[in-house]
Each structure stands twice: as C-alpha cells, then as structure tokens.
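Now for today's protein:

——
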Amino acid sequence: QVQLVESGGGLVQAGGSLRLSCAASGSIFSINAMGWYRPPPGKQRELVATSTGPGIAIYADSVKGRFTISRGNAKNTVYLQMNSLKPEDTAVYYCNADLIAGGLRASNVWGQGTRVTVSS
C-alpha cells in the first residue's frame, strides 16, 4: 500500500556531487523517520544517513561532512545531497521509511534503490 520511489542516481567523477530524492506515496498516517542505506558488495545494507525530524540527523562516519540529509516540505520526501563523492561511495542507495500507515499499522518500507557510480 505504501511505496517509496528513489531517483537522482547516476555516474559522476570523484569530487562531484549528486542529489538523491525519495518520495513516499500511499495511505500514510505519519512518518517517524526517513533515511538512506547502501549495501557494499557482498554485505548487508548499512546506514548512510537518517532523519527523525527537523534538524535531527545521524550520519555514517564515512560520509560526515560530505553528505547532507533533509526532509522535503511535503514531509513524505527525503533528500540526500552528496558532495565530494569518492569511488568507495559507489553503491545502490536505498530509501527507508519508518511510518504509521493509514490503517494505523506500524511499517518499515524500502524503496527499489537508485544506483550511484563514482569514477576515479
């Protein structure tokens, strides 16, 4: 019933920037947190950044100072501004939302992912 759709991935050179977007749609009562995860090859998804409210964000140590997460005015959107990209940032980035659906059921929803490739 609730879906997340990511966009904004692509191919950039090291040192470049990308802006990822994620929009939640469907029957949503409230969103408690939205964030971004990435799975290095052969590993499970790991946290990149997450936001539980205005001005509240948690970042992986590897992206602090380079990435910025923000919530859109629509509240059902989240963005990841990625600056000073490094080849090791290459991954498929997945959007995640912890929310209460319209039926007042707690849910954790994942998007399909958007690929980011950083060339050296």
